[in-house]
Amino acid sequence: MNSQSQFYLHTRIPSTFYLWWSHFKKNKLALVALVVFVLFALTAIFANIIAPHDPTAQFTEFVHLPPSWYDAGQTQFVFGTDYIGRDLFSRLVLGARLSLSLALVVVLLSSSIGIFLGVITSFSNFWLDALIMRIMDFILAIPSLILAVVIVAVIGPGLPNAIYAVALVLIPHFVLTTRTAIRQEKNKEYVTAMILDGASLPRLFFTTILPNILPPIVIQLTFAFSTAILEIATLGFLGLGAQPPFPEWGTILSESYNNFMFASWTVTIPGLAIFFTLLSINLVGDGLRDAMEIEKK
Amino acid sequence: MQRPIFLKHLQFWKLTTYFALTALILSCSKSFDSNVRDNVLVYCSEASPQSFNPQLVTSGSTFDASSRQVYNRLVEFTPGTSDIEAGLATSWQISKDSKVYTFNLRRNVSFHSTSQFTPTRYFNADDVLFSFQRQWLANHPYHNVSTLGFRYFDSMGFNELLHKIVKVNDYQVRFELNYPDSAFLATLAMDFTSILSSEYAENLILSSSRELIDTQPVGTGPFQLTRYQADAFIRYKAHPLYWKGKESIERLVFAITPDPSLRFARLIAGECDVMAKPLPIHIKTLKNYPELKTLTQQGSNVAYLAMNTQKKPFDDKRVRQALNFAIKKETLVKIVYGDTAVTAKNPIPPNMWSYNSATIESKYSPEKAKQLLSEAGYSNGFEMDLWAMPVQRSYNPNAIKMAELIQQDLSKVGIKAKIISYEFGTYLEKVKLGEHQTALLGWIGDNGDPSNFFSSILSCAATRTGNNASFWCNAEFDRLIRKAAINSDKDTRSALYKNAQLVFNQEKPWVPIAHSKQSILTNQRVKNFTLAPTDGVFFSGVSLVSSLSPDLEGNKAINENDNKENNN
Amino acid sequence: MFYSISKQGINFLASFFVLTLFTFALANFFPEKLAFLYANQIDQSLMANHGTNYDLVEPNLFNSYLFYLQQLFDGNLGISSVRGTSVFSEFFTYFPATLELSIVALLFAIFLGVPLGILAARHKNQWQDKSVVSSTLIGYSMPIFWWAMLLVLFFSLWLGVSPVASRIGFEYDISPVTGFMLVDTLLSDQPYSLEAFKSALHHIVLPSVVLGTVPLAIITRSTRSSMISILNEDYIISAKARGLSPVTVLWKHALRNAALPLLTIIGLQVSTLITGSLITESIFAWPGAGKWLLEAVYRRDFPVIHGAILAIASFVILTHFILDLLMTYLDPKLRRKK
Prior knowledge:
The structure holds 3 protein chains of 3 kinds.
Chain A: H1 9-24, H2 28-45, H3 47-50, H4 88-123, H5 126-141, H6 144-155, H7 159-186, H8 189-196, H9 201-237, H10 249-256, H11 265-296
Helix pairs in contact in A: 1-11, 2-4, 2-11, 4-5, 4-7, 4-9, 5-7, 6-7, 7-9, 9-10, 9-11, 10-11
Chain B: H1 5-8, H2 10-28, E1 40-45, H3 60-65, E2 75-77, E3 84-86, E4 89-94, E5 100-105, H4 125-136, H5 151-155, H6 158-161, E6 162-169, E7 172-177, H7 184-187, H8 198-206, H9 212-215, E8 223-229, E9 233-238, E10 251-256, H10 260-268, E11 274-275, H11 280-284, E12 292-298, E13 301-307, H12 317-326, H13 329-335, E14 341-343, H14 366-375, E15 383-387, H15 399-411, E16 416-420, H16 424-432, E17 438-444, H17 451-458, H18 460-465, H19 475-486, H20 490-507, E18 510-523, E19 526-527, E20 543-544
Parallel strand pairs in B: 1-10, 1-11, 15-16, 15-17
Antiparallel strand pairs in B: 2-3, 4-5, 5-7, 6-7, 8-9, 9-10, 11-18, 12-18, 13-17, 13-18, 14-18, 19-20
Helix pairs in contact in B: 12-14, 17-19, 19-20
Chain C: H1 2-29, H2 35-38, H3 44-50, H4 54-57, H5 61-73, H6 87-122, H7 127-141, H8 144-158, H9 181-187, H10 193-231, H11 234-241, H12 246-283, H13 289-299, H14 302-330, H15 332-336
Helix pairs in contact in C: 1-14, 6-7, 6-10, 6-12, 7-10, 8-10, 8-12, 9-10, 10-12, 12-13, 12-14, 13-14
């Protein structure tokens, strides 16, 4: 791409995506994962329509009903019911909405701050750069979950606080990715050419550099998305994230934990939901990475 | 140096791999051929003790770890009952006006000998004096050693009750009271009146490490503490000079396992022998595990929803009555307790004397509740906070679950309840300060006397200590229970308490929810274990059946003092 | 070399400085602020005069920070507000358990991950490679709290081949010397010390598999990718051309050169392991620092929360620093750089 003349840069951008896609779709596993992920996303969007019951409604006559494929199960409760007779399927469906949208918020929050800081550090003087990087190094040095747990401990458990904590933990990854990518591109000839042409800093960044640093950032985004889902679920599991009766996946798991020897479906099914969501995102991310690497060569 | 040294010899990697594999295989072979486990009883307990001094706290798990294994009291409850028998006092005389109690103390009772302390004398009157005066006298050198305070001593009203404690001679002590207290003897069998060693206390002053008295206990009890790691385990060994004779269990281990499902898993796996506080679901599935036994008895407890009568809208009696009608206790008993409880209508459990079976229970009726609410001016309902503790208690296996069910019931009469929970210690503190509107709580009677319920959690005095979580102070009710407390005739007291229950039933400061059975699970190794009605766990007198074959039975089990080689 | 060492030294000190600033700020969010630090220092009368709020004694934030630093260097982390024991000594009771578990988990990840990575690299794009790569993704996507539950359900409760929880059978009374159960059991003079060692080993298998799963996935993938790039290097091709056996080429030539980048990746697992230990320890009732911190969070025991994060983060920073030094020492390119 570097050998390309700058005059074609604008028309090349959409076709880059096309090329990524053409490489991506050759990877069958990643394609399947993408379909699975889209299904999860659709479930989350249309959760209200899909869920047969109110996720907090208690059917006290049906406590710990096994899933419908068991003899004792009932078709109106596909995945069975939990310890106070709530429909597990409805809870999971609404949980999908909750988990995915929360993760999205976290990613948007951390990526916008992270990329912004990354840009600042790459274009700023030594001291500011050093200061920001020291702080980022420090955040990276503290194990992420421990940092999140401590933040939640100090400002109090609950969903909003958990979101801030997880977002904060993810920021340094975006800063580092952006900074490394910009540093690599900054001294290349096409950038120098733009500077010599007198491009302003924003223009230089948005039209010249950004398209070229997109691949690592996109990969980082998928990574952050799966991390966010996992960390929010983990905080929920530890009782520090979403509070009951919120149907957050991690919270559902922690509520069912006490009964996992007797009503194992209340543990296995929510766990599978988290697992397949993460797996599909990671497979898509992996496929993207491969596709972009092939394209880069 | 050109290459990392550790890579120069690839043999190293291979060897380590072999080692790791061998270790793995070795560890998976279950050939534990020794008999170390034979004289060790492992008890899966539900919480870390807050202290090893029963004077300082009110929690049952602390008593289980301290007073019930390490200490003795002047009088004791006969195991499995609320009857009083001789403990460190062999006999006692009560004066005619019931205000002077004289105790004759047991001779030749040895205290534990630990790495810190070797007793030079037997138990005597000084130890009794020390144990009470530490809690009683503000200028006692040990009074302020702990910041925890002496809650039980204070809440039992001992500061007002005690007039004088006199050492008549080394083996006789006289308690003089300000007024008669019909439950005094039973109270002396309670955990906070455990007898500590005054000689140990004096030694600790000399080595200026007074705080050790609460963390490294020295008592006269059947077991002595050897090692403790918070949130992990407590280890005891049998007191070799125990006055009742050395226990047959050589060593006792508390495996601290707050998570009930993990406790149960450990019991099934044989990692523990006795499991505290099983969930109802564990008892239900017990038929799948023939190696386990369950011990169940009707407990002496009550679970209730306290409504803060100092706060709107619960200052209105009709609202309190409405809540009583709105909550379907039968469902709670079925789902939360798995039918291991009975619904409650009075503050005391039905197996306690003076229980008034004539009071009228508020049967579930959302219509009546709605009607009462609209009479009180809340026809559109209201919003309220519903506090639930995060931990399992013997009177309530899962308060959060209960709160979620109550939330649903209340929404049917237009009341929007928001569930709030804090860490248990914080929860109790906040309730004491009256920050709640409604809170799920419970009470376990400690001495088999109804006054332990009425005075402790429903009296006007208890509104000041905060134990009365409804902050309900009713003149008539208070008059009745005060009169009953100082009377010594059981029938008169019973009549007074029955009347008090009528007042309670009219005013409804609580929604009484359930009286739970209490259970404990053990495996077949454990013999002679009995449940105490106070929910306490006592390992004195318990024995273990050896898993050895008969021909090896003669072999002595290994203990720390044995230098004999193990035969494996 | 001196230059790069001093640069790393400065980085280390700077990170530590930021850490103390952070924990200091954190402590100022606590309800009792810095009071927990002087609980055993300043006498009762001062406490009585000024209350328990350090701000009243020392209103200047900068002096307050200096005081804070001084306490840290004296090893004073205050006393637990729930248990009244020294936080500093509590940390050293609990941390070895975490360290032991993490080391075993890391060994598990390395001894399984490196061969798997090599296998995948040697058979790039064949079925072996594909299955290894997909399993790493599975491992990487596994919520470990769920994974732990499944393993306990299967191995401990159904098959009964593994203990449910804790570090060692309760029948063994092992006095802590090093804090590492596997070592302490062998050092113990109890007659059953060997048997206790076996029990400790038996207990550590399941938790370390759970904890090692994510590092295993990462190490496998890194080994694979660095081996692939190295196997394409000229010197490997020439070694092969010279007729060396594939095993020799792989182990002597390729792996040695892959070792350094791998060491960096392994160093980065310290963070992952500590994060994972929080969950693993709470599920397996493993009395380590992660569980200690979590219990403190539930009890709102702020001195312990403060001490735990400070100590754990210092440990991670220190490990990274030592690993950096080690890398400088081992890497000829870095070593020669002036």
